[in-house]
Amino acid sequence: MSAREAMSMLTVLLLTLTGCGGQSQVPATPAGPCETVSEGTAPSSGTESTSSGEADIGTNPEVATGYRDAMTAVRTGHYSVVSANPLATHAACEVLRDGGTAADAVVAAQAVLGLVEPQSSGVGGGGFLLYYDALSDTVQAYDGRETAPAAATENYLRWVDAVDRTEPKPDARASGRSIGVPGVVRMLQDVHDEHGKTPWPELFAPAVTLADNGFDISARLAAAIADAAPELRVDAAAAQYFLNGDGSPKGAGTRLTNPAYAKTLGVIATGAQGFYTGDIAEAIVTAAADTSGGRTPSLMTVDDLAGYTVKKREALCSPYRGKEVCGMPPPSSGGIAVAATLGILEHFAMNEHGPTDVDPNGGRPSVLGVHLISEAERLAYADRDKYVADTDFIPLPGGTPETLLGADYLAGRAALISEQRTMGTAEPGEFGAPSAPPPPVQEHGTSHISVVDSHGNAASFTTTVESAFGSFHMVDGFLLNNQLTDFSAEPAGPDGVPVANRVEPGKRPRSSMAPTLVFDEAATGRGPLYAVLGSPGGSVIIQFVVKTLVGMLDWGLDPQQAVSSVDFGAANTPETNVGGEHPAIDVSDNGDHDPLVQGLRELGHQVDLADQSSGLSAIVRADPGWIGGADPRREGVVMGDPS
Length: 643
What we know:
The structure is a single chain. By secondary structure, the chain is of the alpha+beta class. It has helices spanning about 5-20, 85-95, 100-115, 185-195, 205-215, 220-230, 235-240, 260-270, 275, 280-290, 300-305, 335-345, 365-385, 400-405, 405-415, 540-555, 560-565, 595-600, and strands at about 30, 75, 80-85, 125-135, 140-145, 215, 255, 310-315, 315-320, 325, 445-450, 460-465, 475, 480, 515-520, 525-535, 570, 575-580, 605-610, 615-620, 625-630, 635-640. An eight-stranded mixed β-sheet has the order 1-2-21-20-16-15-10-9. It has a seven-stranded antiparallel β-sheet with strand order 8-5-4-12-11-3-22, with helices on one face. Helix 2 (about 85-95) packs antiparallel against helix 3. It is globular and about 60 Å long.
């Protein structure tokens, strides 16, 4: 079954469950009340898993599942929500329809996503959330990132113990050592306590109903199960849920029920504390310590769970093209890296380097546009790699993000970019900070929810269990994360200097998540809310968010075009990503016939044409109302009220 066919099945199921109808696609399709519109058409020839083949679990964000061609932006009136799955979007939209806030909507959406998209997020993981409170005109940053257990040492991911100096079994990711203390449940409770309107228990009803009555496995989830089947077999609970009796993966269209998850949500519905103490906490600790299949156990305790706290941090806001772009501060590196990239790009006339042949898919990016953005990202990643970690443990240079984001500093970084040749690998700035660039750490996939409510509030929420299916440990109907593998397993660099992002007890691993809110600039104070956006994708999230912001702010793309446009960019390596799943990219003969690929190679770029697995969403003010876009690379949809 193709991704498109399964998407249609999922939509039919949604419409059957809710009685909502669809509409034909036209530019800026108006939304009906919480209905699915603008799915796009069947994937273009060669766009469904063409260039990357089977995903390599542990290195790729998630399995690539195609591209929905020619999606169109969706207009709504007073509220809008986008998530990576129609069932989750619908649950959140109904909350908004009934007068709920953006805080209420993300709780309902997360509860459903943990059921229908368990490979990406769930109550066993963590996340970052930016919230705009319209009444107080403030942006608040909530850090629900997982933490290392109190017993974790700097060698926690490196060795089994001081005597057995071998890597945790079967590897760090699939062992108990990768499991961080989950933070998302307590974070959502805190956000709801401060900004919610709908009673907390009511927000879990849609997910509980789906868990009890069942849902059909989508093509995306089926592909992920098939890809991870060998690892899922090791865990008895995961194997029973995701695999057939003969050990084969359950396929698309298979009906799944999850009464254990419904029971867990029932406990959470009485208050987040029920997740962090009592039977669920005991079960988490037991599952994390499971040694079946030779797995090295976690050292997490019930005290680690009971002691988890959410951090409220100051949002990181900076100017770009007459807008104020707000992101997440450390321990996420996403906000700093996005802001640094944009600050460097301010020194170039990016409006002159927009895409050609603009269509619903965003057109064909120009060689110089991709080159300049990729070079700016290399410089941003170089600083991010060396200096950004949990600032409760490792301060930024100068003790403030301004050191890495100051206008003079970024002007100097911009001057390092040549329009004739790629730098390949950038050097970080020199601040004399007591840290060394870490060895490479693979980061992986997540999910993202963008919401604007009828009260003027907004939420940008990126949520994750880290790699697809997290650590493969399942308990009480949900998966436990492998978030600690976002730490550097090596505590020091080759020169013996400590790595900023090393493991320490109670520390939060560095992330690349980049939930983003954009505002108009005003002569005094903050201007009106302009956009809400974000994406999953591990360390590539930064690139996905940057290309979307530049697409909207420099190139005049609508949010669907900006989200649908070719995924491209670079971390601090000679490789430049160009998403081979996009219909505008000719991947035949390794891109030898594609003008963008060839142009980049002439500038010295090593082009990687692997299919990308972004899950971008964006909602933009349309005056009146809102206009939204969902990533064609996943199953997401935009829903809201009629404009």
